[in-house]
Amino acid sequence: MKKYIAEFIGTAVLVTFGCGTAMLVGCDAAAGSGYILTALAFGLAIIACAYSIGNVSGCHVNPAVSLGVLMSGRMSTKDFIGYVIAQFAGATAGAAVLGVFNGCHFEKLATNSAAGVGGNPWLAILVEVVLTCIFVLAVLGATSKPENGKVAGLVIGGSLALVHFLGIFLTGTSVNPARSFGPALMDAIAGGSALAEYWIFLVGPMVGGILAALLWKLLNGKKA
Fold first, then answer.
1. Residue 153 needs a FRET pair 20 to 30 A away by CA distance; which of 45, 60, 68, 214 works?
2. Cα gap 211→221, rounded to integer Å
3. How far does Cα 80 stand from its chain's mean position?
4. What Rg value do the Cα atoms of the chain yield, rounded?
5. How far apart are CA 38 and CA 35, in angstroms?
6. What is the distance between the alpha carbons of residues 88 and 60, in angstroms, rounded to a whole number?
7. What secondary structure letter does DSSP report for 103?
8. Element (H, E) at 199
């Protein structure tokens, strides 16, 4: 149970600080500073969580990461289900906190969208598959050896910031179905339409997580 509580807390922190920063500073392509601050906020949130709850749950805080870990043989199906439930609950709680911080306005709390790719859902899925695959592959590699423990959090946080640098303009960068669900659900409760596009940010990251696990097995000479 402690592992699931840790995942709940970690995902809530990720959404609160990552999506919260995006909500407050915006992501203005002309200025660019909003992009940088948002990418760094997501990366730093992961670093903070990695060194606080990592020794309890491994700090997945992302169903796509948990799926990659499951496929690599490093967690049980039971734990995978528990982690995913905790992650979605944590993301929802984090988004609710953001809405309260935002004066009880729950719409557009850094929701993801395909608008940056012209509203093309298949292109948005491709973006999410590629970005998630790169991120989850970094997670699997960084956590594959015990001696990497001291730097794994930095590598993972840096990798998350990296994929945000490219992906924010395109899709808002999800690479995490739970992170996308919380703000989309709050937006729907407030009468918004973000939940209609949520399927993109469920399918893309989960496919990316699967691809990353397969590539990791291939590169490490393991049976896929």
1. 214
2. 15
3. 16
4. 16
5. 5
6. 12
7. T
8. helix 198-219
Query: Does residue 200 contact residue 125 with C-beta atoms inside 8 Å?
Result: yes
At residue 32, what are phi and psi to the nearest 5 degrees?
Answer: 85, -25
Contact yes or no for 140/68 (Cβ under 8 A) = yes
Amino acid letter for position 75: M
Kind plus residue range of the DSSP H or E element containing 150: helix 149-171
pTM reported for the whole predicted model: 0.94
Exposure string of 32-44, with b = 16+ CB inside 10 Å and e = fewer, is eebbbbbbbbbbb
- Please count the other Cβ atoms lying within 10 Å of the Cβ belonging to residue 105: 14
Local confidence band at 32 (pLDDT 50, 70, 90 cut-offs) = low
Instruction: Please say whether the dihedral angle defined by the alpha carbons of residues 20, 119, 159 and 61, taken in this order, is positive or negative.
Output: positive
Check: CB of residue 137 under 8 Å from CB of residue 162: no
Structure tokens at 179: 């992170």
